[in-house]
Amino acid sequence: MEELDNSTAQDPPIWAIFGDLMSGLVGVFVLLLIWALGFQLELSQSLEQEVEKRQAEEQRRMALEQALADPLASGRVTLRDGRIGISGSVLFSLNSDELQPEGRELLQSLVAPLKVYLGERDQLLMVSGFTDDLPIQKGNNRYADNWALSAERALTVTRVLIEEGMPPAMIFAAAFGDQQPVDSNQSAEGRSKNRRVEMAPVPKAKASQFTAAFNNG
């Protein structure tokens, strides 16, 4: 009887076990609370950075659209899917790659906003030349075909943009000839739309792939 009493006396009281359990639960709760607060803080900072990023992006886009406002309103320039299209008649006379004064003035107005837009996005500017499907006029020995004409026009625009302050490392030229028309070549109006130069921001990786394929081709 005495031995049973001694064994019972040595067992820890139930309240002590309960207290240890509660202390452990409180510790876990505190850790979870700290983790939740840290996650909320990180999420809040991420959201704030994303908002700032979007605001900066919007400001760059607005600056570019503002620079394009007048030519867009007059129809000299189009803005479609992020590509700036400039009518060939604004830049060049028919079957020529010599830039007209109006075209140079337009390009001058685009350099500053394009530099900011490209620099902040770490992108390059692809300048693409296009023509209608009419063959080069007889007697014009300067261009072998529409591919050559579109290439010279793209290079002319590229060189002028560089002369006006565009860093050479941020720009490259491409030629598409009479491929990828934006309108029908069955009418004078449609052919006029197809004779154009486009400028499009592209990621550097995509630009490298394009130029590699172009050079290998």
TrEMBL record:
Membrane-spanning ranges: 14-37
Keyword annotations: Membrane, Transmembrane, Transmembrane helix
Chain positions covered by the region annotation Disordered: 181-217
PROSITE patterns per the UniProt record, alphabetical: OMPA_2
Keyword Membrane: yes
Boundaries of every OmpA-like domain copy: 77-205
Pfam families: OmpA
Coiled-coil intervals, chain numbering: none
GO cellular component: membrane
Keyword check for Oxidoreductase: no
Composition bias type Polar residues, residue spans: 208-217
Protein name from the UniProt record: OmpA-like domain-containing protein
Species the sequence originates in: Oceanicoccus sagamiensis
